[in-house]
Amino acid sequence: MRGWQRQRWVTLVALGLAWAGLGASCVLQRGEPQQWLEDYDALKLHMSQVYANLEWAVQSGRVDTYALDQRTQAALRETSSRRKARKTIEQFVEAFGDPHLRTERWDPSDDEKPSPEHPAPPIALDVEASEACKRMGFRGADHDFRLDLDALERFEKLPRRADNPFHAGVLQLDDGRRIGFVRIAQFGPDRYEDVARGLWDAHRSARSEPCDEACQWGFWRRVSQALLDALDARVGDLRAARIDALAVDITRNGGGTDWAGIAPRLLTTQPLRCPPFGFIKHAHASQRLERRLQSVRERLDDPVIGGKLRRLLEIASERLSARIAEAQQPCDRLRLFHEPGAQLECSQLV
Questions:
Q1: Which helix (H) or strand (E) holds 322?
Q2: In whole angstroms, what is the distance from residue 294 CA to residue 280 CA?
Q3: Residues contacting 208, CB < 8 A, separation 6+
Q4: Which residue from 219, 235, 227, 237 is spatially nearest to 187, judged by alpha carbons?
Q5: Which among 60, 12, 19, 49 has a CA at the least distance from the CA of 332?
Q6: Of 31, 182, 199, 236, which has the highest C-beta tally within 10 A?
Q7: What single DSSP character describes residue 110?
Q8: Cα torsion at 164, 228, 249, 101 (round to 10°)?
């Protein structure tokens, strides 16, 4: 990737503070209403700690959490079977109308799933690429178009590039204009296992010790950068095909990491404003912010970085330090379920 793009990647990752809309699962395996109520209480506690959109759901009027809690408790007290208890919990979750919050059947293998925030134990350097990537949480996915573009008579797919997961094609309109299409199926680097496998050998060859937390975080950044390079190359292919406009197929894209805020800048020459991001006042947020701050400080230690970019990194360092202090302030969001009309300020927009 060109130098200016690489610098911009450093800056935007440092400044971006992503909402984490975390789902929660409830295990209903027992048979007494009181035990189901205990499971329900555990779910509410979990949501109060990690569900980023909880306050927004209340403040926007999408859900009256106090009334919903009263209805759910009453229904569970009257429940006579596990099936009905499970349905009651599903209705509670569905009331939020948030695709980031959903019920799923519990799979023990999903516990402590590796991610940049929850890395795997150190990985030996002799571990093969497929196994190393699996341990770090990477998995495969279908990256082809969801739109049925092949049904269009004048649509032609561009030839696939080796190791490039982004599908592209051109549709010629009746008036002669050419519309370029590119598919971004996922905004999370963890869904591009093929790309990750191809980078493992180069990543481990630079190390003499097992790949620890810092090494794994660096690998996630390497994969993210490789995906930006691949997307940039695909846009270059479409530009070479002399398109008049660009359409991006993100149908059924469930979101992902801060990569989603960087990729659009490869698709336009117009300046784009960063959307507002935020975090919850909780240890999960403060730990994540501390990693960002560490990354920023490492960049500031690089004497090559100067001028405007250095000033942006200095601003990021100041803001992150302040936000970490705010994230560490306690805030009891369970009150939203237990007190009618409760108003809190546990989330921080920046």
A1: helix 307-327
A2: 20
A3: 125
A4: 227
A5: 49
A6: 182
A7: G
A8: 110
